[in-house]
Amino acid sequence: MMNNIRNFCIIAHIDHGKSTLADRLIQRTLNVPEREFRNQMLDTMDLERERGITIKSQTVCLPYTDKNGQTMTFNLIDTPGHVDFSYEVSRSLASCEGALLLVDASQGVEAQTVANLYMAMEHDLTIIPVINKIDLPAADIDMCNEEIENELALDPLDALHTSAKTGIGIDEVLAAIAERIPSPVGDPDAPLQALIFDSFYDSYRGVIIYVRVKNGTLRSGDKIRLMSTDACYETQEIGVMQLKQVPRKTLSAGEVGYIITGIKNISEARVGDTITLADNSCESPLEGFKEVKPVVFSSIYPLSTDDFPELADSMERLKLNDASLVYTRDSSSILGQGFRCGFLGLLHLEITEERLEREYDQSIILTAPSVEYRVHLRNGQSLTIDNPLYYPDPSTIDYCEEPYIRASFIVPKDFVGAVINLCISRRGNQADMNYIDTRRMELIFELPLAEILFDFYDRLKTVSKGYASFDYEFLEYRRSKLVKLSILVNHEPVDALSVLVHEDRAVERARIICKRLCETISRHQFKIPIQGAIGGNIIARETVNPVRKDVLAKCYGGDITRKRKLLEKQKAGKKRMMQVGEVEIPQKAFLAVLKNNEDED
Fold it and tell me: CA-CA distances (angstroms) from residue 556 to 152, 559, 562, 571?
């Protein structure tokens, strides 16, 4: 039975045609009618389809008949395509024996192509290189063959040539999967060991778990145990996915399918966990499981304080579909009640924001994202801080540490200087530089994670005219000179606008934030000072000028003292108004701190 099973995934850089190739494979094997077909069939969320990215892993079971007439089962496990979801990608790869490595015929090998290849090789997968988009006028197959050999250390003679859009070469891809990818290994009679590689929440049936059975056999009605939590559940239904759920009586070693147990909380079905039988457990869980920890933190507040109960309900429902979202109650003197949230990365933050606004109809304010800093105090204590509000008194701090990443860039040689300047301006240290070919270079930089949170990706695309590609991995925590930058509006600190910044960039950052706030806060009847401060020291200031009534309009003549008297009276009124007046800060003002100084160039 296992000899006729092939478990594989498709890995590629962003926009190299991964979802389109999956569509062609599904069309060719499942014979999907034209009226039922839609592009990106494995992408179930509107957000995935609009952005052209995969956010949630999916699986589909494809029947295939080879040239000898033998019927086989291909299990395609679709993987997320962004660095934020690298742990989910690693668990999907652990469920496979082989991978199709896509290379865009017009763009060649890029940063995530290399990163995904290394990850696949760590899991000892059989790699089939596929040169996609060969129908494009700009396609350069010779260049791709050269890069596959030099950069990826794979044999270019093994590469398949396809156009997923037009369907060229799809039969050759299916034949290569059958011939080159090994069948799974495992013992159907051993105690059950099944790897959870993803899960999602269904409003009617609870959590649906996607698993790859490594050893043993699972039957409908069996009582299972989740090894990380020791929770036990009875299976209500098991089966395989063929664009829809197809129930089965058993799932055996080597197979990929789904399990429904009636679990109500998706965080109980953790990605990477091992499922075994409650009454016949395996000795040890599968390797590789870890708790996913957020790396980017931001606070979410409702636009109107009256909408907090609705936001709380929306966050609960969103958590049912996104186990990696972490949040706790938070409050602000300016913005009221809200939530402090942890995200896997900036893309995860953007997706959460868009889903709250579109799927749950919430109008929200996001504070500036920050990372997790380690603060070591003089008394020997250590604190982990992700919110500037909890930054301790500087006099009690011995030293601070911030997270660093190892970033890999693949850049056309014409833009190398611009990318190096961008990285150096973000406190980066160049670690390595390699020639890929005569046209492109690989740059390796060590960068503070906080420096890529704001608009780094946009700036990278700007300075390279869209040609540079970027991938990164966490490196370590390093010592850093951090200060808390407070923003005061009308002499009142606005806690939602305060940020932790490096000492060398504090003045520059404060000036930009003050200038942006000055542009976004509307004029009032009185003068509004906007100040950036570190402790008691004001390091930047802008002023929103008041709206003035022309009190001299009715004064047609007479002595100058009459006019001066009216102006002095107005000045006294403005001063009194400033002492008691409240400043309205619009929502777009809070986005000012998300901008960085390069936008001023």
Answer: 84, 10, 10, 20
pLDDT of residue 265: 78
pLDDT reported for residue 14: 72
> CATH number for the 193-277 domain, one of 1.20.1090.10, 3.30.1180.10, 2.40.30.10, 1.10.10.10?
2.40.30.10
d(CA 180, CA 127): 9
The distance in angstroms from the start CA to the end CA of the chain is 64
Q: Give the C-alpha separation, 66 to 284, whole Å.
A: 37
Of 407, 351, 380, 441, give the one whose Cα is nearest residue 109: 441
Across the chain, which has 601 residues, the per-10-residue mean pLDDT values are 85 79 83 57 52 63 83 83 68 87 86 78 88 88 88 86 87 90 87 86 84 88 86 88 84 89 80 85 79 81 85 84 80 80 81 83 81 90 86 90 89 88 91 82 90 78 79 86 88 82 88 85 81 89 80 69 78 60 64 49 39
pLDDT at residue 139, rounded to an integer: 87
Q: Which helix (H) or strand (E) holds 333?
A: none
Q: To which CATH superfamily is domain 483-600 assigned?
A: Elongation factor 4, C-terminal domain (3.30.70.2570)
Strand-pairing partners, residue 447, are 405
**Same fold flag, 193-277 and 483-600:** no
> To which residue do tokens 């409908």 refer?
220
Q: What is the dihedral of CA 486, 492, 494, 497, to 10 degrees?
A: -40
Query: Considering only CA atoms, which of 104, 114, 126 is closest in space to residue 176?
Result: 126
Q: What is the dihedral of CA 42, 43, 44, 45, to 10 degrees?
A: 180
3-state helix, strand, coil in the chain (%, to 5): 30, 35, 35
* Confidence at residue 263, expressed as pLDDT on a 0 to 100 scale: 84
Task: With H, G, I as helix, E, B as strand and everything else as coil, classify residue 140.
Answer: coil
Task: Report the CATH fold assignment for 296-366.
Answer: Alpha-Beta Plaits (3.30.70)
Nearest to 458 by CA among 599, 297, 344: 599
Other CB atoms within a 10 A radius of the CB of residue 190 amount to 14
Contacts of 32 (CB under 8 A, 6+ apart): 26, 41, 243
* Phi/psi at 340 (5° precision): -95, 120
Q: What's 104-146 look like in SS3?
A: ECCCECCHHHHHHHHHHHHCCCEEEEEEECCCCCCCCHHHHHH
Going from N- to C-terminal start, the domains of the chain cover 2-82+91-180, 193-277, 296-366, 373-480, 483-600
pLDDT at 335: 74
Question: How would CATH label the architecture of 2-82+91-180?
Answer: 3-Layer(aba) Sandwich (3.40)
For residue 61, what are its two tokens? Answer: 């079971």
Q: For residues 27 and 19, is the Cβ–Cβ distance under 8 A?
A: no
In terms of Cα–Cα distance, which of 366, 388, 386 is closest to 295? 386
pLDDT at residue 400 in the model = 92
Query: At a CB cut-off of 8 Å and minimum separation 6, what does 166 contact?
Result: 135
Rounded Cα–Cα distance for residues 213 and 209 (Å) = 12
What burial class does residue 152 get, using C-beta atoms within 10 Å of its C-beta: 0-12 exposed, 13-18 middle, 19+ buried? buried
What kind of architecture, by CATH, is found in domain 373-480?
2-Layer Sandwich (3.30)
